[in-house]
Amino acid sequence: MQAGAYNPQQQLPNLTQQINSLSINGQPQQGPGQVKQPPPGPPQLFPQQGLQSNVQQPPQFQPAPGPGYRPPQQPQPVPGGFPPQIQSQHPFPPQSAGQPPQANGYAPQPQQQSYPPQQPQPQAGPPHLGPPGPGGYGVQSPPQPGGYMGPPNAGYPPQPQQPIQGQPQGANYFTGPPVAGPPGPGAPAPGQYGMPLAPGQYPRPPGPGGYQPNLPHAPSGPGVPQYPGMPGAGAAAGTKRLDPDQMPSAIGVMQEDQQSRGGVFQTNQRGLLPPLVTTKFLVEDHGNASPRFVRSTMYSIPAQPDMLKQTAVPFAIVVNPLDNPARDEQPISCVDLGPMGPVRCIRCKAYMSPLMQFIDGGRRFQCLLCKATTEVPPEYFQHLDHQGQRVDKWERPELCKGTYEFVATMEYCRNNALPKEPAFIFVLDVSYNNVKSGLVNLLCSHMKSLLENLPSHTPVGFITYNSKVHFYNIDSSLAQPQMVIVPDVADMFMPLLKGFLVPRAEAINAIDNLMNQIPAMFHDTKETDAVLGPAVQAGMEALKASERVGKLLLFHSTLPSSDLAPGKLKNREGDRRLLGTDKEKTVLTPQNTYYNNLGQECVGAGVAVELYLFNNAYIDVATIGQVARLTGGAVNKYQYFQADIDGPRIIGDLAYHLSRPVGFDAVMRVRTSTGVRPTDFHGHFLMQNTTDVELGAIDAGKAIAVEIKHDDKLTEDEGVFIQIALLYTTIFGQRRLRLHNLALNTCGQMADLYRNCELDTIINFLAKQAVSKSIDSTPQAIKEGVIARCAQMLATYRKQCANPSMPGQLILPECLKLLPLYVNCVLKNDAVAGTQELTPDDRSWMMYNLMTMGVGQTVHYFYPKLIPVSGPTAQLDNPLPIRCSRDKLSEDSAYILETGIYLFLWIGASVNPDWLQNIFGVSNLAQLNVEPITELPDVNSDESLRLRGFIRTLRTERQRHMRLTVVRQRDKMELVMNRFLVEDRTSDGHPSYVDFLCHMHKEIRGLLNQ
Ligand SMILES: [Zn+2]
C-alpha cells in the first residue's frame, strides 16, 4: 500500500492541535498600582508604603475551567520485575589495535588539548570537579545556539557464535540487493547469512522472534533497485519489487534480544556489551556502571587510531547521569567519608573507584586512568588480602561498584558554604494570551496539587509578568499575600527580601489564597506585552538574594517585542521558506546574544530555566530557547493552547517534571584513561572551558552525549577506562558527587569492534551530531555526510571482516544490520531534516528535544512504536509492536503509534463495532467526532479500562503527557500520521526503507570498487 500523499500545506502542529483563532485587542491597559521603583533601593511594599496595592480581596474563586481533569498522575518507576534469567555469555577476549574515529567533519567545537596530564593545581573559586585532569577537550563553546539530541536505536543481537579468527562474529548479515528473480543456488553458510538461497526458500517471512536474514542476492545491474533520484532509478526499480519483510527488522531484533538477553545483566566484565535499551532486564552492579546511566557506541576499542578511523564508527558515550535504577534494582549507595571527603588521585583527580589498584601493603594506590600513585590517607588505610585486594573491598561501594555517590565536603560547595535547599520559582506570563487561553486559571487552580510533588521543605516563590514584573510575598504571617511591582524592567532587581521564598508546606494557605487572586486580578487584562528577559532576570535575582540555587518554571506566550525591555526580538517567520535550504541556519540560530548571555548568567548563579511556551504565533524558539539550553533546562511547547482541550497535557507534564529526581547547580566531568580523551559534548549545558560541563540543573530524564577520540595508540589488552563525575546539590540541599565508572576493552582485530557495537547509541550520537551541525553546515552536506559515513562503516566491514562473497551481495555486520533502516529514519526526522512543512519554531523545538534525549528515548523517537490495540492480537499487558509500515495496518483493527512526543490512535474503517462501542460508546465509526478527542472517554467496559491504562503506562514511561490524536482510516489526519510510518516512502520524497537499503548498497559497492 502506498503511503498517503502528504500535503505540504498542512503543518503538523496545525493539524495535531486545535487552532484557536483569537482576536487580540492590543490596547494596553494601565495596570493598577504601578509604581516606579528606584533601582536597588529598599523595597517598597505596597500596603506599608501606602501605595495602592494590586492585591485585593479577590472575587470568589472560580474553579478551574478545565472540565474534570484528573489529578495528575504520579509517575511511576519503569515497570521492572523481570524474572531473573541466566544471562547469555559473551566471550570478549581482550584484544588490541585500533584507530581513531573518523573526523567526518562533525563536532562543532574547538578542540584544545594539553596532553599529557598536568599536575593538579590548587583549586580556587567555585566548585569544580577538580582541577583539570589529563587532557583538555574540545568543547561546545558557550554561547552557541542550539544544543540538540539523538536518534533511536535498533538492536544488534549479540551473536552467540564464537568468532572465527579474524572474522566478525558469525554475523554477516546479508540482505541481498533486492531482486525478485529466482534465487541462485547455495545456502547460507552457518554464521554467515546472505548467501544465495536454494530455490524454494525464497521468499521467506521473518521467523518469530528474529529476522531470517536470507535473501537471494542479485547480480548488480538491472535488477538492483535504485534510490529515488539516482540516475537510472525508476523503471528498473519499479518492476522488481523487494519484499520489505525480507529486510532486517527492528521488531525482530528487539524481540530476539529480549529473548536472549532479558533477565539479569551483571556488570562484572570489562567491555561487556549490554542488552538492547528496548530489552527489559535487571542490572546487578558488579563494578561497571549500569547501561541505564551510560552506554557506549562500542565496547571494544581499537588500539590503533587508524583502525577506528578506517571503520568510521564513532566512539562516543551517552550519559544519563542522574537516572534512577529500575524498580527491583539496588538503589545507589551513598558514601560519607566525613571531613576527609572523597579520596582522589593526586594527579588526574579521579575519584576512588574499582579502577584504583592498591599496592605497597595498602599504603598507596595506583590510578588506572593516569597511572599516578597516590598515598592512602591514614584514615582510609586498610590491609590487603592475599590477592592484593583491600579486605574491606566488598563493604565499600566505591571499591566494588560501578556507580555510587559521595557526600561532598565544604570545598565542593559554592562559596565554600553548605548549600541551602534549592527553590522552585513559578514565573507566569499574565498577558492577554495566557489569560484568554485559560492557562492562568488552569495553573492557579492546580498549583496546590502540583506542589505536592515537591518535598514539604522545598522553598517556592511566585512571579507574574506582563509589561511589568510582579513579585508576591507569601509570608504565612501576613493576612493576605502582597504584590510588589517592578515597573522598570530594564533595571531588574529583587524588591522583596523576606517572604518571597517560603517552604511550600508552610505557605500552603498563602499560596492557596494567592492562586485564587491571580486569575481575578488579570482576568480582564488587555496587556499583550510580556517581558521575557526581565522575567527570567527577576527569578534569578530572587534566588541570588536568598543565596539559593534553583529552578525557574516559565510559562510564556508571545514574542518579546517591547521597545522598553531588553531582549526585544523581531519576527523572522517570513524566513520559514529557508528551512531545508542552505540558508536555514539563519532561522535556526539566535538572532541576538541577549538570551545566551542571560543563560550564562543564570548558570553562574546556579539557576536552571524550564520554558513552557503557549504561543499562537511565531515566538522565536531558536533564540529564546537558548536560556533553557544553556542552563540545562528544556523547551516545552503547547502551541494554540486551550485549557479545556490541552489542560490535562500541561498539568500532566508539570507533575512529571516536578516529581522527577533533579540535581541543582551541577558540574559534570568526564575523565578517561591515557590515550583517549573526550572531545565534543552534545546536550543542554554550558561549557566555558574544555572540561567542565556546567548545569543550572539536570534531571533524571536528560542525557549528555560525549565523543571520545584517540590521541595516541592504546596498549593492547589494557582496556579503556572512563569515569564520569557529577557534582550536584540534591533537592534536600545536600552536596553530592555521583560517580559512574565504565571499563571497555581494547582490541587489535577490527572484527572485535564490529562485534561489540551498540547501534542504538551510535544512532543517538550521529543524530545529535547532525543537529549540532545544522547551525554551521547545510542540510544537503549533513545528509550526504551521514550517508557516506554509514556506507564507510559497512564497506569497511565487508572489505576487512566478512567472508569472501559475491560482489553483488550486501553483507551487514550483525550489530549494525539495522544501520540503514535507522539512518533513513534519522534522515527523514523533523529535527534533522524538517523543511518548510514545519515552522522554524517547530524545527527548533524538535532540535532542542532531541539534544537531551537518552538512548531509550531516541529509539522510538526515530522508530516509533506501532501496537495493535483491538482484536485478538492485542496484548495490552505485554504489547507486541509491529513494523512501522502502512502495509501492516489492517482495516479491521485499531493501533497505537507512539514516538515519545506524539501519540496516535488509528482506527481501521472496518473495525469491529463492538470494540468501537466499548471504547467510544458509539457503534458506527462515522458517528465518531474525533477532532476534539484528546483523551479516551470514560466508558465503563473492560476494553476501555485496559486501553486507557495502556495509554497511561505509555505516558508514564515517557514522563510526558503525550496528547492523544485519534485518526480514522482515510481521514486527512492520516497524512500526518503517515510521516511516522518510517519504513514507507513519504510523499515529500524521503525514501522507503527498501529504497534506502538499495541506495546504501550502491554506495557501499561504490566504495568497494574504488
Ligand atoms: Zn589519576
Automatic annotation (TrEMBL):
Q: Which GO terms describe its biological process?
A: COPII-coated vesicle cargo loading; intracellular protein transport
For bias kind Pro residues, which ranges apply? 60-82, 117-134, 179-188
Bias kind Low complexity: ranges = 7-18, 26-36, 46-59, 105-116, 229-238
| Secretion signal, residue range per the UniProt entry | none
One of the record's GO molecular function terms: zinc ion binding
Q: Which UniProt keywords apply?
A: Protein transport, Transport
The Zinc finger Sec23/Sec24-type domain extends over 342-380
Q: Residues in domain Sec23/Sec24 helical?
A: 759-859
Chain ranges passing through the membrane: none
Tell me where in this chain the Sec23/Sec24 beta-sandwich domain is found.
663-746
A GO CC annotation recorded here is: COPII vesicle coat
Q: Where is the Sec23/Sec24 trunk domain?
A: 419-655
Instruction: Check the record and name the Pfam families matching this protein.
Output: Gelsolin (PF00626), Sec23_BS (PF08033), Sec23_helical (PF04815), Sec23_trunk (PF04811), zf-Sec23_Sec24 (PF04810)
Q: Where is the Gelsolin-like domain?
A: 878-950
Region (Disordered) location:
1-247
Stated family? Belongs to the SEC23/SEC24 family. SEC24 subfamily.
The name on file for this protein is Protein transport protein Sec24C
